[in-house]
Predict the 3D structure of the following.
Amino acid sequence: MNLHGLLERHDNQIKGTLSCFDRLVFFGAYKAISWPSAMQQRLSRRSVRLLDYQKDCANPMRLQMHERIKRLAREENLPILQTNYSQRKETLVETILEERGRRPGIVCILAAMERCRCHKVYKNHDTGCLQLQSSPGKCLHYHVYFIDEHHGLGYLRIPTWAPFRLQACINGHDWLERRMKRAGITFKKHDNCLTRVSDIEAAQQLATQLDPAALHATLNALCSRLVAVHERFGTTLHWSIYQAEWSTDILFKDPATLNDLYRQITRTAAIETNCEDIYRFMGKRPNARSKAEVSRVKEHGHGKLSLRSKLVRDGIFTTD
């Protein structure tokens, strides 16, 4: 969707636009143990043989990670809910929030067996020596959902097997809503889309003030409480952005205009857009398998760029 062209053509029918971050996903890596070579150096300094890596290093840390989460569950008087691949965690969390309310604190703890990257001992056939390698595997992950006073609803995904690559997520709309409430800006929301804002210009100024340092401090404080190995490796924790969605809420003066426009947009997208267009948009070259693979690439492509629109009573919500 050519957003600027859309805004120009319908300028007299639009009350305003509000752009802000939407879904923000981060990866957290403990650099002291993230790479096999770093872990192997640590084992050497502690005089731990690679043959004993799992027994004397990996498994004790795994048990500590489990115990820390179980202790948190006892402190918060929360059950650890086991989930499977077919369950949508966001739906389960929303159900819990309807009963619990949206006060700050730990919302729930979910557990799931999921894929991960882990250190394993292999024999190097070239040298004839054992060494650590990063390999695909599975382990139990804990998804701890929380509501932060400043950043709103989010989660921390904690694996229980070394090197404990963390994943955190917050919602930029949730963060902005809290900023607007403190600033006295009234608004209405439908799902994750703002449909009415009393002062759009002031809200837009707030949307540009997301502070990375404050966000890092929030995530580090969570890890200090939830991740057992943080006490040993916390000074080496490094956060990187995995996914950042920048959204634009377009607020229309007349819902009837929006309904007609949205029908035109969806019809054009369905008729005119084909596999080759999507591949070129994503910077990929179409090939003979494009038609069969386009849906998979859209959903799982590395470094993906997603476009989606949402129709509500007074506006369109787009992300890129």
